[in-house]
Amino acid sequence: MPVFLSSWTENPKACRDAESACSDWAEKGECNKNPGFMAKSCRLSCRLCTAPEVKASDYAAMQLVLNTSLGQIRIKPLFERAPATAALVLEAAVNGPACRGCVFYRNEAVPPEGSSGPPYGLLQGSLAGLLKVPEHEGGPVFMRRGHVAMIPSTREFFINVMDHESWGGSMTVWGDVADAASMAVVEAALLLPYHDVKHPTFGTVMRMLDKQVPFSPIAVPADGGSSSSSTGSSSNISSGEEEEEGNATWTSLDAASQKRRSRRALDLSE
After folding, report:
1. CB 100 within 8 A of CB 126
2. Closest by CA position to 212, among listed 103, 128, 70
3. pLDDT number for residue 225
4. Are 105 and 212 in contact (CB under 8 A)?
5. pLDDT at site 167
6. pTM for the model
7. pLDDT tens, position by position, 81-99
8. Cα(227)–Cα(81) distance, integer angstroms
9. Among 199, 222, 253, which residue's Cα sits nearest to residue 79?
10. Region Disordered: which residues (predicted)?
């Protein structure tokens, strides 16, 4: 891991990466090659700051709301299964700035009856504002419709719209869609236009949204209350500089890094 040019003192709660590909970029030396962008977007990966300790007890009375242009997705954190992961997500919702890297980018409808896919029955996105990549926790679980899980060794997550019994051993299930209205928003995202992307090694076909759906993570009281900042959509969140490659749009600096974050999820369906 490269060491950046210098460091400064700042609010430790602001010590986070704004892009899910920051760690990949840092490993390639971008902290020194592109210091202006990286200092702004990848402070944690460039070692410009030290992330604070996150305690699950500080967030136990909260739920997560993902504000999107399609509506709100309310998620109940499963502290009893994955306290560290749930706390990391809620910490980002409470303390993180506007997350321009928080987007849904893959929409997989439920496959025909008797088929395990494709499509694979999930909505997938990135929680780029997490202080660190969550470690696996919780042990094996029957993954059912509505469960929210992290993909191993990434800041990427997905929401199940069908049961996935065989996936529960490798994923960290940290949340559950809280109500029917929230699931309706998830299902609406599955109807958006997409294009197929084929895994270069395994040949697995996945559905990538033609236009990514940004979201804004907000923490609200678990008793059903709302946050003053939880109204409206996340349409004002920028996804950063973009470059076209084929039919897909990937966030700069490195398009290949963004591809990898999507392709990692393909491996879960192998």
Report:
1. no
2. 103
3. 55
4. yes
5. 84
6. 0.76
7. 999 999 999 999 998 777 8
8. 25
9. 222
10. 219-270
pLDDT for residue 215: 96
Name the stretches of the chain with pLDDT < 70.
1-13, 224-270
Say if residues 89 and 217 touch (Cβ distance below 8 Å). Answer: yes
Q: Which residues contact 36 (CB under 8 A, 6 or more apart)?
A: none
Q: So where are the chain's domains?
A: 56-269
Chain segment 170-193, per-residue pLDDT in tens: 899 999 999 999 999 999 999 999
For residue 157, the surrounding DSSP H or E stretch is strand 156-160
Each residue of 15-45: b (16+ CB within 10 Å) or e? bbbbbbbbbbbbebebbeebeebbbebbbbb
CATH 1.10.287.470 fits 56-269, yes or no: no
Collapse the DSSP code of 49 into the 3-class scheme (helix H, G, I; strand E, B; otherwise coil) and give the result.
Answer: coil
